[in-house]
C-alpha cells in the first residue's frame, strides 16, 4: 500500500455551547450567549466524516472527553463530589466553570503536531500533543488528549506520542493547525513548515510560539535542512486568523494560501520552490482577509482522492459570498491538482470558529502503521451508524447559556459519555 493520510475528526461533544471563550476568534466572540445545538453539531460532524469516507478515504474519529470537567476544577481548590465541585465553581468563578464546560476538543487540528515517518529520525510517526497554553479552556484538553492519542496509536514501533510541552507563556503550542507538510506525495520525504506568531502588540493574542514549534521538530528529530519556520502576517492575526489554517491549507505538493497569510511570503515561497520543484503555490485573488475569516474558505480540507486528483472540502459558508465562491471556481479550474469542490455544513462548529480543517487531525501512514492503529477509532458504515445512534439518543438538542448550570445537563453529559464509551469498547 502506498502512504495515505487519515483524517481523524473530533466528534462534537454533548456540551457544545457558545461561551465566547476565545479572544481573537471572531466567531467565538460574536456568538457569545447564543443558544447552541449539540445534537446538530455532532450530526454535522458525522455527516462530514461520511462525506469524506464516501470520497474513498479512510476516516477516523476521536471521541470528546467528559465535560463539564470537574477534575479540571479540583486543582483550583474545589472539593467534594463532582456536582459539589461544579456547583461551587459556577457560583464562585463563572468564567472558570464555563471553561470546564467547553466542547473545544472537537477541533482536533489542535490536538498535536504530527510529523510523518519519512521525515523523522527514527522512521516513526511522531505526535507532539499540543499544550494549548494560550486559552484556559483549551489547556484543559492537553492531558486527556495525550492519553487518548496513546490509546488510538498504541503501536510503539510505528508511533511515538509525546506529552504536551510544559505549559508556559513562551511555549504556547496549538498543534497541527500551525504546521504544514509539503512533499511530492504522502510517502515521500517532506518539508515541514511551522507557522508561528510573535509578541508584537495588537489586540488579539498570537497563540503559536516559534520555540514550541522548534521543540516539536527537535522531539521528532526532523532534518534541519528540510524544516522551515514562517511568521504569520500580523494583519491576518488581527483580522481573526488565530491559527494559520484559517488562511492557508496545504496537501502534498499543493499550497493554497491567502496572499496576506505570511509576513514574508516571497522568502517562504522561494525556499519551498528551491526544495520542492513540483510545488504548486495557489493564491486566491479578490478575497479580503475579512472574507477569508468569515467564510473559512482556507479552512477547507484539501485531500488527495484515490485517483490522484485533489478535492477541497469546504464549509457551506464559502458558497454564500460571490467573491469567495468565484475564487473557489477559479482554483478548481486552474492549472493545479485541485479538481473538485465538495461543500459540507458544519455551521454549529463554525459559529465557534471551527471549520472543516479545524475538526480533523491528519495522520500520514503506510500499511504497517495503518495496521498499528486501534481499529475501533476507524470508521466503517456500521461504526458510523452506531455513533449516530448514540448522538441521537443522548446529545442534548439545545443548550441556552443558563442550561450549563443545571445538574440535569451534567447528568445527561455523563450518560452520553458512558454510552459513547460503550460503543467504542
Ligand atoms: O481554539 N474555538 C476554538 C476554535 C479552534 C479552531 N481550530 C483551528 N483553526 N484549527 C479556538 O478558538 C471557542 C469555544 C467557546 O468560545 O466556547 C473555541 O475554543
Give short descriptive properties of this protein.
16 helices, 15 strands, binds N~2~-(3-carboxypropanoyl)-L-arginine, L-arginine/glycine Amidinotransferase, Chain A, 3-stranded mixed sheet, 425 residues, globular, alpha/beta
| Shape verdict | globular
CATH level-two architecture of the domain at 4-67 and 102-239 and 359-424: 5-stranded Propeller
Spans of 5+ residues with little confidence (pLDDT < 50)? none
The CATH superfamily of the domain at 4-67 and 102-239 and 359-424 is Succinylarginine dihydrolase
Q: β content, as a range?
A: 15-25%
Number of strands: 15
Briefly, what CATH class of the domain at 4-67 and 102-239 and 359-424? Alpha Beta
Would you spell out the secondary-structure blueprint of this structure?
Blueprint: E1 4-10, H1 26-30, H2 38-54, E2 59-62, H3 70-73, H4 82-92, H5 94-101, E3 112-115, E4 125-129, H6 136-139, H7 142-152, E5 159-162, E6 179-183, E7 190-196, H8 210-220, E8 227-231, H9 234-238, E9 248-251, E10 254-257, H10 265-275, E11 280-283, H11 289-295, E12 301-304, E13 310-315, H12 322-333, E14 338-344, H13 347-350, E15 360-365, H14 367-371, H15 381-394, H16 407-424
Parallel strand pairs: 1-2, 4-5, 7-8, 10-11, 13-14
Antiparallel strand pairs: 1-15, 3-4, 6-7, 9-10, 12-13
Helix pairs in contact: 2-15, 4-5, 15-16
N~2~-(3-carboxypropanoyl)-L-arginine is lined by residues 19-22, 25, 28, 102, 104, 107, 109-110, 135, 138, 177, 242-243, 245-246, 352-354, 358.
Amino acid at each position: 500500500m502506498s502512504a495515505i493520510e487519515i483524517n481523524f475528526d473530533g466528534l462534537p461533544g454533548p456540551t457544545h455551547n457558545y461561551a465566547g471563550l476565545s479572544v481573537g476568534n471572531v466567531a467565538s466572540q460574536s456568538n457569545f450567549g447564543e443558544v447552541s445545538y449539540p445534537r446538530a453539531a455532532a450530526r454535522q460532524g458525522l455527516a462530514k466524516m461520511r462525506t469524506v469516507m464516501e470520497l474513498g478515504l479512510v476516516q477516523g474519529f476521536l471521541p470528546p472527553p467528559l465535560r463539564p470537567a470537574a477534575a479540571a476544577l479540583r486543582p483550583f481548590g474545589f472539593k467534594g463530589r463532582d456536582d459539589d465541585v461544579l456547583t461551587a465553581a459556577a457560583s464562585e468563578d463563572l468564567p472558570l466553570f464555563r471553561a470546564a464546560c467547553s466542547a473545544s476538543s472537537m477541533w482536533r487540528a489542535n490536538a498535536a503536531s504530527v510529523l510523518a515517518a519519512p521525515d523523522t529520525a527514527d522512521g516513526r510517526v511522531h505526535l507532539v500533543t499540543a499544550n494549548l497554553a494560550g486559552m484556559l479552556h483549551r489547556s484543559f484538553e492537553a492531558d486527556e488528549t495525550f492519553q487518548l492519542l496513546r490509546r488510538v496509536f498504541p503501536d510503539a514501533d510505528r508511533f511515538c506520542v509525546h506529552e504536551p510541552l510544559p505549559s508556559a507563556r513562551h511555549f504556547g503550542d496549538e498543534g497541527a493547525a500551525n504546521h504544514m507538510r509539503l512533499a511530492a506525495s504522502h510517502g515521500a520525504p517532506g518539508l515541514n513548515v511551522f507557522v508561528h506568531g510573535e509578541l508584537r502588540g495588537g489586540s488579539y493574542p498570537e497563540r503559536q510560539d516559534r520555540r514550541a514549534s522548534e521543540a516539536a521538530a527537535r522531539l521528532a528529530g526532523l532534518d534541519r535542512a528540510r524544516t522551515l519556520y514562517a511568521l504569520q502576517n500580523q494583519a491576518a492575526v488581527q483580522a481573526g486568523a488565530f491559527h494559520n489554517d484559517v488562511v492557508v491549507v496545504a496537501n502534498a505538493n499543493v499550497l493554497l494560501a491567502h496572499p496576506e497569510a505570511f509576513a514574508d511570503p516571497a522568502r517562504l515561497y522561494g525556499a519551498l520552490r528551491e526544495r520542492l520543484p513540483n510545488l504548486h503555490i495557489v493564491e486566491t485573488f479578490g478575497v479580503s482577509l475579512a472574507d477569508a475569516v468569515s467564510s473559512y474558505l482556507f479552512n477547507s480540507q484539501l485531500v488527495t482522492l484515490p485517483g490522484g486528483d485533489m478535492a477541497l472540502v469546504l464549509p457551506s459558508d464559502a458558497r454564500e459570498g460571490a467573491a469567495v465562491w468565484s475564487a473557489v471556481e477559479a482554483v478548481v479550474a486552474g492549472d493545479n491538482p485541485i479538481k473538485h469542490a465538495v461543500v459540507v455544513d458544519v455551521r454549529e462548529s463554525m459559529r465557534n470558529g471551527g471549520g472543516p480543517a479545524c475538526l480533523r487531525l491528519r495522520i500520514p501512514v503506510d500499511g504497517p502503521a495503518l495496521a498499528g492503529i486501534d481499529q475501533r477509532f476507524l470508521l466503517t458504515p456500521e461504526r458510523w451508524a452506531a455513533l449516530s445512534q448514540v448522538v441521537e439518543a443522548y446529545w442534548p438538542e439545545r443548550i441556552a447559556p443558563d442550561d450549563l448550570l443545571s445538574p440535569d445537563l451534567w447528568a445527561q453529559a455523563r450518560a452520553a459519555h458512558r454510552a459513547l464509551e460503550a460503543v467504542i469498547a
